[in-house]
Each structure stands twice: as structure tokens, then as C-alpha cells.
């Protein structure tokens, strides 16, 4: 069965960086786009960006451009999202989510989700 | 950026009732709307993609309609497990954006 397992909760100080991992199992990581979505406490959902694990191509939401980097290590079926220059309003649960369709037919819609990683930014 | 406005913010209903949730977009998104359900402490669950298509394993009581700027998610008869928050999401342009959500609560 398809599973996305994310790394554990993080507490960071303002200005620091955080790197969240997302390990895929039950399917081939390179077969589907991998998206990152965040949710601030009690708030709605916000797209951060995506990575094509096959090519390594990425696209980031303009809000995060310059602060976020998405990478992958296909040898261990794991994707990563690193967010720099953290601020208090980056406090959120960060989810990785698989695209509903395969890489060649992506529809930017998310079916399988990780369990979420809470990132808390506090001095 | 395409803004998605969901209404109402909260709905108080009883099991067995029919539910209609609205999602309006600030510009046309063709049929590129998805709907998700989220329960407390859980990740969202895909219900509908491209406005009208049920995702794998989603019960037939969930249906979607609309195109352009006005979209609807209908639950034909509420089950106890359907009380949750529902979000719409557009994929017509970048960045991908979500609506603010509609909470369906037990009356």
C-alpha cells in the first residue's frame, strides 16, 4: 500500500532553517510528482510547491520562492523540503502529498498524504 | 493568484440530510477544481477531482458539479463520518490555491 512517512516535529528559532523528509513506500517515488502543502494552526491549506522526483525539476509558490528548496534522493525513495529564514508565521504542519496521476499526466491534485510534520518557530 | 471563496463557513446539520457546499473562484478555472475532506488531526482526503470525478474509493453519496467560477460539492445523505471540514482547490494556474474551508458540524 502507498505510504508517505514524514520526519518528526521540529522546533526552530527565527532565522533558522528546517529540513523535512518524506519517505515513500508502496510505489516508485519517480513515478509521481510530490507536492508540499502547509497548514498553520487552525487555518486552511497552502501550497508550497512541487518536485518531479524523476527529473528533479521543481516549482515553488511565489510566496516561498527564494526561501524553499525541494530535493529528492531516489536511492532511498525520499523527498525533502528545506525552508530557510524561518519566521513565527512559518509555524505550521507541513505535509507531503503525492499527485493523483503519474508524472507524464500530472493533474496537480493530491491523493496520498504524509502524516504531517509540525514545525514550530519560536524564540 | 486565483482566490477561492467557500460558503458557508459553517453548516450545522443532522445525519441523513443533504448537503450542498459552494466554492467560487476569482477567475475562471475551467473544470480544474478538487475537493478534500479533513478531520481533526488528520491529513486531507481527496474526494473529487476535475470538478465531477470521484477519487478512488470515494462513496457515491459525494458528487461534484460546476465549471468556470462556480462549483458545488454535494453529499446526498450525511453519514456520521462525514462531519468534517471541506476544502476546494484549483489547479488552473500557479500557485495552486485552496478555499478557506466549510465546516460541516453536527446539529
Structural class of chain B: mainly beta
Which class best fits the helix and strand makeup of chain A?
mainly beta
Shape of chain A: globular
The portion of residues forming beta strands of chain B comes to over 45%
Order of helices and strands of chain A: EEEEEEEEEEE
**Which quaternary structure do these chains form?**
heterodimer
Query: Which whole number gives the mean pLDDT of chain A?
Result: 97
Gross morphology of chain B is globular
Radius of gyration of chain A: 14 Å
Q: Helical proportion of chain B? A: under 10%
Roughly how many Å apart are the termini of chain B? 36 Å
Could you explain how this protein is built, in words?
- The complex is a heterodimer of chains A (123) and B (107).
- Chain A has 123 residues and is mainly β.
- Chain A is 0% helix and 49% strand.
- Chain A has strands at residues 3-6, 10-12, 18-25, 34-39, 45-51, 58-60, 68-73, 78-83, 92-99, 110-113, 117-121.
- In chain A, strands 2, 4, 5, 6, 9, 10 and 11 form a seven-stranded mixed sheet that branches. A four-stranded antiparallel sheet of chain A has the order 1-3-8-7, with no helix packed on it.
- Chain B has 107 residues and is mainly β.
- Chain B has strands spanning 4-7, 10-13, 19-25, 33-38, 45-49, 53-54, 62-67, 70-75, 84-90, 97-98, 102-106.
- In chain B, β5 (45-49) and β6 form a beta hairpin.
- The radius of gyration of chain B is 13 Å and the shape is globular.
- The interface between A and B is medium-sized, with 21 and 21 residues.
Outline of this structure?
With 123 residues, chain A is mainly beta. Chain A has strands spanning 3-6, 10-12, 18-25, 34-39, 45-51, 58-60, 68-73, 78-83, 92-99, 110-113, 117-121.
List descriptors.
heterodimer, A: 123 residues, seven-stranded mixed β-sheet, four-stranded antiparallel β-sheet, 11 strands, 49% strand, B: 107 residues, mainly beta
Write the layout of secondary structure elements.
The complex is a heterodimer of chains A (123) and B (107).
Chain A: E1 3-6, E2 10-12, E3 18-25, E4 34-39, E5 45-51, E6 58-60, E7 68-73, E8 78-83, E9 92-99, E10 110-113, E11 117-121
Parallel strand pairs in A: 2-11
Antiparallel strand pairs in A: 1-3, 3-8, 4-5, 4-9, 5-6, 7-8, 9-10, 9-11
Chain B: E1 4-7, E2 10-13, E3 19-25, E4 33-38, E5 45-49, E6 53-54, E7 62-67, E8 70-75, E9 84-90, E10 97-98, E11 102-106
Parallel strand pairs in B: 2-11
Antiparallel strand pairs in B: 1-3, 3-8, 4-5, 4-9, 5-6, 7-8, 9-10, 9-11
